Amino acid sequence: MSVVVRWAPSPTGRIHLGNARPALLNWFFARRHGGRYVLRMDDTDLSRSTREFADGIEQDLAWLGVTPDLLVRQSDRTALYDAARDRLVAAGRLYPCYETEDELDRKRARARLLGKPPIYDRAALSLTDEDRARLKAEGRKPHWRFRLDGRPVQFDDLIKGPQTVNTASMSDPVLIRADGSYLYTLPSVVDDIDLGVTHVIRGEDHVSNTGTQIEIFEALGGPVPTFGHHNLLIDAQGQGFSKRAGSQSIADLRQEGYEPLAVAIAATLTGTSLPVEPYASLDAIAERLDFSMISHGSARFDPAELDGLNARMLHSMPYAEAASRLSAIGMEGEAIWNLFRDNLAKFKDIAEWSAVLHGPIDHEPAPEDIEYLTLARALLPPEPWDETIWATWTNALKAATGRKGKALFLPLRLALTGRHDGPELKSLLVLLGRKACLDRLP
């Protein structure tokens, strides 16, 4: 069987880390099994879905390294859903209901007072033709519900193992709103059948939906895909990521300068038995990540862990990978990259370190160090220089002044770089050259 997966975001906002998790887990599964990846825009909510958000989702996926094999938009596929609707109506599985939202709220409240579950009572199934004609004459427009079998629906979850969802404890779901627009459930099933989706990989908050959807698959005579429900990513406060709650978006992370692979690793390997550590590529993760490694508990995302991961990836990045990015900001040379990369938290930080090479340096020496720095200027060895020059220079200063440790090295670092931290001065001196050093010493 050829594997086909789909990721189905709603283009109602920019995607965040919680959305990136299923997007990438589907990608890993497709790559691991040589399958196809479908990006399906669930844009049936015309009041909230926009093309701008849809384009943003494509951009975010591309930045993360995901290239779909097929892109479809539900707004282009209404004829398929209409045909499925008609089949379900003819089979007696989809029926019109005329209750208003207020009436449904009162029914649910009354059921709770009686100690009963607040599920729909299927009163609409008892309506006569005359009743429906009267309600239509009152101007009521029906919403449409799918009549569940009301039975234990069993499936073998790729991640959670054997699952049972008892649809007898659920309300018949509304598939079509009173304005004629489709909710998520029916178009999703119809698309999965039409596109030949073999595996549905999504968050564990959809487990109960799976029971309903399996019944719809069966009612339409379509093959039921294999389901896998992964744990959800939560933030440091234990809250789920949400567009409406304003969770930091993938676009925000890109703007802040994070490496896309670091973001992908943090979004997917958090909450698994694999360590959150640098990998060479998404394919390298796909080769190692088996769904049995996904925890059944929540996956707590720690921003500090992403920061550390991002820095580690830069520190180990070979020059060949960084060269074009350096050139784009006017920096050239493997020696420069090798000198500064261990001091980077984000790639864009290297622009700050460029100032260390090219100046000017904004530093006023402490009064007690001026005499020492004047001597340092006088003892600065002549060129040519290599990485032994730092030891030669500081040994001469140590012999002349008796200084050692921080008192010996820090005034020199501050005078030459204007910073307390930074790369090894034995390498930096060679790149600076003697003239630049003389210019920075009093």
Short key terms for the protein model shown above:
442 residues, mainly alpha, Rossmann fold, Glutamyl-tRNA Synthetase, domain 3, 3-stranded antiparallel beta sheet, 46% helix
Task: Describe the protein's architecture and organization.
It is a single chain. The protein is mainly alpha-helical and 442 residues long. It folds into four domains: 1-89 and 184-316, 3-Layer(aba) Sandwich (Rossmann fold); 90-176, Glutamyl-tRNA Synthetase, Domain 3 (Glutamyl-tRNA Synthetase, domain 3), CATH 3.90.800; 319-351, no CATH class; 367-440, Arc Repressor Mutant, subunit A (Orthogonal Bundle). The chain is built from 18 helices and twelve strands. A three-stranded parallel sheet has the order 1-2-3, covered by helices on one side. The longest helix is centred in the first third of the chain and has 16 residues, at 17-32.
